[in-house]
């Protein structure tokens, strides 16, 4: 197989694996009484982009978009792939062959800035969930989720490196 194709596949598998790790974490939280695992609001947000609407006062009150659940899940996984590519872009593709935990956790935790500064304000929740009923709880949950994503980056790369030997 072409080395470039192998490298792209590694990055994609790391991104998908990390995102799936996050999803398992979110399912566990849901089973323990946390919020439901629903990316429809994200799909609704993204679905409004072609109409030139990037910000909402409250995404729940915005017009529904056909296929918003699928669009939300797709965007969720595409974002995971992009963050995996960022990690490999910063660390080099060799990181996928000999992964270390610190860069993965740093990227994972650092990615919390995306929802805090972009997504939450655009959905009407304010910067870092400031307009939610429990901002500190929302921030802590986001930070924990993104740390789990970072751990998922590392574990996915570790698994891929192991099976590639």
What this model shows, in words?
The chain crosses the membrane at residues 71-90, 102-123, 143-163. InterPro entries: DUF2938. Keywords: Membrane, Transmembrane, Transmembrane helix. This is DUF2938 domain-containing protein. Helix 1 packs across helix 3 (68-91), helix 1 (3-31) crosses helix 6 (135-164) and helix 2 crosses helix 3. The protein has 165 residues and is mostly helical. It is 68% helix and 0% strand. It has one domain.
Largest sheet: none
Number of strands: 0
Query: In DSSP terms, counting alpha (H) and pi (I) runs of 4 or more, how many helices?
Result: 6
List unreliable stretches of 5+ residues. Answer: none
Order of helices and strands: HHHHHH
Mean pLDDT: 96
Strand percentage lies at under 5%
Query: What is the global morphology?
Result: globular
Number of domains: 1
Structural class: mainly alpha
The percent of residues in helical segments reads 55-70%
Question: Termini, distance in Å?
Answer: 15 Å
Radius of gyration: 17 Å
Pfam families: DUF2938 (PF11158)
InterPro entries: DUF2938
Keywords: Membrane, Transmembrane, Transmembrane helix
Transmembrane segments: 71-90, 102-123, 143-163
